[in-house]
């Protein structure tokens, strides 16, 4: 029995504070496990080292951190425009009832993500 935590890295927004973020969640009383999404072998190796309190090589850290990212609007978008109003760079606009990203203006600040009522915005 117990609770498990999700989104310890805030959907990838805290990737630069990987160890600190995981350790913060690990130290919350009552949390017995953390669900961690992984795509690459290196991410698995890194996460195993973190959770086993093993030393992490700089090489392994640099392999996993900072892949090129993009902002995606999922099909869940209902076109409410909340993200458009929130974007400080005017990188989002509505087209055909859905939010669209102007990648030339998007700086991946992530302000749009938490205001989306449909959870349709991802930075991957």
From TrEMBL:
The record ties this protein, via InterPro entries, to:
4Fe4S_Fe-S-bd (IPR017896), 4Fe4S_Fe_S_CS (IPR017900), PSI_iron-sulfur_center (IPR050157)
Keyword terms = 4Fe-4S, Iron, Iron-sulfur, Metal-binding
For molecular function, the Gene Ontology terms on record are: 4 iron, 4 sulfur cluster binding; metal ion binding
Q: Which residues form a coiled coil?
A: none
Q: Tell me the ranges covered by the 4Fe-4S ferredoxin-type domain, including all copies.
A: 68-96, 97-124
Q: What is this protein called?
A: 4Fe-4S ferredoxin-type domain-containing protein
Which organism does this record belong to? marine sediment metagenome
């Amino acid at each position: 029995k117990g609770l498990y935590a999700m989104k310890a890295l805030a959907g990838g927004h805290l990737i630069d504070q990987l160890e600190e973020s995981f350790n913060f969640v690990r130290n919350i009383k009552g949390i017995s496990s953390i669900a961690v999404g992984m795509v690459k072998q290196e991410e698995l190796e890194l996460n195993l080292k973190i959770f086993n309190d093993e030393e992490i090589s700089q090489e392994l850290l640099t392999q996993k951190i900072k892949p090129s990212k993009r902002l995606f609007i999922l099909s869940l978008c209902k076109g409410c425009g909340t993200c458009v109003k929130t974007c400080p760079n005017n990188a989002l606009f509505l087209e055909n009832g859905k939010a669209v990203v102007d990648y030339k203006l998007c700086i991946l600040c992530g302000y749009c993500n938490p205001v989306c009522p449909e959870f349709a915005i991802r930075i991957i």
